[in-house]
C-alpha cells in the first residue's frame, strides 16, 4: 500500500516500501524523488541517501532541482534558441544568453497529476506543457513513472508525446550521498563509468562540441576511482566548474554506472537507455541543504545542447511520436 501524506502547503508525499525495508518517498511538486531510505543503520534503521528539502515551500526557498523531473530539455541551450525543422524558436533565458533546464517556472515548480498503482508499487505523475511555454512548441503530454521493486531498484521512466514537432531531452536530478551525510563531501565515493569520451565545457558552461578521450585525465573512470581525483586536481576542466559538471558518452547502455560508498558497503548502479550521463558534484551549494561537494547527480539523458551541436545526436520529438526513456537505480548493501 502506498501511503499518502501532506508535504507542505499544497504538495503530497507518496511513500513506497519494498519487502526488504527499502523506502522511497516522492512528491507531486516537480514529480520529484524526495527520499531514498536504505535499512543499513544499526538495528535496521533507515539512511536517506537522497538530498531532500522538508516541503514544497522549502524547495522554493532553497533549491528547486534536487530530485526533480527536468523537462522538456535538460541542461543548457546555447543562445536560448534552436531550429526545429527549419523554424527558429527563441526560448526563455534564465542564464545570460542561455536556457537552463527548460527555463523559468517550469515543470519542476509545478504540481503534477498523480496516479497510484498499489499492486505494482508505482506512482505515475503527469503534466501537459502548453504550446509556447518558455518558447517550446507543442502541447507536450509528459509522464514520469516511478516504481520501487523488491530487487531494491528504483525505476524512473519518462514518456512524452507532442502535437507539434518539438525538442525533448528529460532527466531526473536526484543528488546522492551514500553516507547519508550531505554535510560530508563525496570526494571519497568511488565511481566507475564505461565511457571513453567526455564533453569538455567552455567558459559559458556549455559543451564545446568536441568529445575528448578521457585517457590521462581526471575524467577517466573506466576503473573505480574517487571523485577526489578531479576535486584535488588543477586540470582546467575541473577548475572551471570547481569539480564535475560534465557529460560522459556511454559506450554501451547495458553497462551500468557504478558508485561505491567510502567504506565500500553501499553500492549504487545506474542503467539507462539514454546515450549519456551528466555528473554534477554540487559545486555551488545551497548550504541549508548540503555542503560544497556534498552530493552528486547522475543525470541520464542525451548530450546537452544537442539541438545546436552537430554530432551530438538528435533530441527532435516529432508530432505524434512517442518518447520513452528508462533509468534504473539499483542499491546494494
TrEMBL record:
CDD domains: galactose_mutarotase_like. NCBIfam families: PRK11055.1. It holds the Pfam family Aldose_epim. Keywords: Carbohydrate metabolism, Isomerase. It catalyses: alpha-D-glucose = beta-D-glucose. It comes from Streptococcus suis. The active site is at 173 (proton donor), 299 (proton acceptor). The lineage of its organism: Bacteria, Bacillati, Bacillota, Bacilli, Lactobacillales. Belongs to the aldose epimerase family. GO terms for cellular component: cytoplasm. This is Aldose 1-epimerase. SUPFAM superfamilies: Galactose mutarotase-like.
Amino acid at each position: 500500500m502506498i501511503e499518502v501524506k501532506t508535504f507542505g502547503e499544497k504538495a503530497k508525499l507518496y511513500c513506497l516500501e519494498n519487502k526488504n525495508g527499502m523506502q522511497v518517498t516522492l512528491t507531486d511538486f516537480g514529480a520529484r524523488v524526495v527520499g531514498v531510505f536504505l535499512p543499513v543503520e544499526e538495528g535496521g534503521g533507515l539512511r536517506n541517501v537522497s538530498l531532500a528539502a522538508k516541503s514544497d515551500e522549502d524547495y522554493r526557498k532553497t533549491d528547486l532541482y534536487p530530485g526533480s523531473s527536468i523537462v522538456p530539455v535538460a541542461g543548457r541551450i546555447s543562445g536560448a534558441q534552436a531550429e526545429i525543422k527549419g523554424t527558429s524558436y527563441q526560448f526563455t533565458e534564465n542564464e545570460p544568453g542561455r536556457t537552463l533546464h527548460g527555463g523559468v517556472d517550469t515543470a519542476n515548480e509545478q504540481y503534477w497529476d498523480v496516479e497510484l498503482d498499489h499492486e505494482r508499487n508505482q506512482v505515475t505523475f503527469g503534466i501537459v506543457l502548453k504550446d509556447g511555454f518558455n518558447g517550446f512548441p507543442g502541447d507536450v503530454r509528459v509522464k514520469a513513472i516511478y516504481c520501487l521493486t523488491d530487487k531494491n531498484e528504483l525505476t524512473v521512466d519518462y514518456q512524452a508525446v507532442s502535437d507539434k514537432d518539438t525538442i525533448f531531452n528529460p532527466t531526473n536530478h536526484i543528488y546522492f550521498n551514500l553516507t547519508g551525510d550531505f554535510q560530508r563531501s563525496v570526494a571519497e565515493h568511488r565511481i566507475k563509468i564505461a565511457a571513453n569520451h567526455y564533453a569538455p565545457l567552455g567558459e559559458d558552461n556549455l559543451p564545446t562540441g568536441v568529445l575528448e578521450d578521457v585517457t590521462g585525465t581526471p575524467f577517466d573512470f573506466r576503473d573505480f576511482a574517487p571523485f577526489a581525483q578531479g576535486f584535488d586536481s588543477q586540470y582546467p576542466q575541473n577548475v572551471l566548474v570547481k569539480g564535475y559538471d560534465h557529460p560522459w558518452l556511454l559506450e554501451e547502455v547495458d553497462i551500468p554506472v557504478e558508485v561505491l560508498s567510502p567504506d565500500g558497503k553501499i553500492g549504487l548502479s545506474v542503467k539507462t537507455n539514454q546515450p549519456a550521463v551528466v555528473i554534477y558534484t554540487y559545486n555551488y551549494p545551497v548550504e541549508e541543504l548540503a555542503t560544497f561537494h556534498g552530493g552528486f547527480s547522475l543525470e541520464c539523458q542525451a548530450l546537452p545542447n544537442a539541438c545546436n551541436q552537430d554530432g551530438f545526436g538528435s533530441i527532435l520529438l516529432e508530432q505524434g511520436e512517442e518518447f520513452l526513456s528508462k533509468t534504473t537505480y539499483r542499491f546494494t548493501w
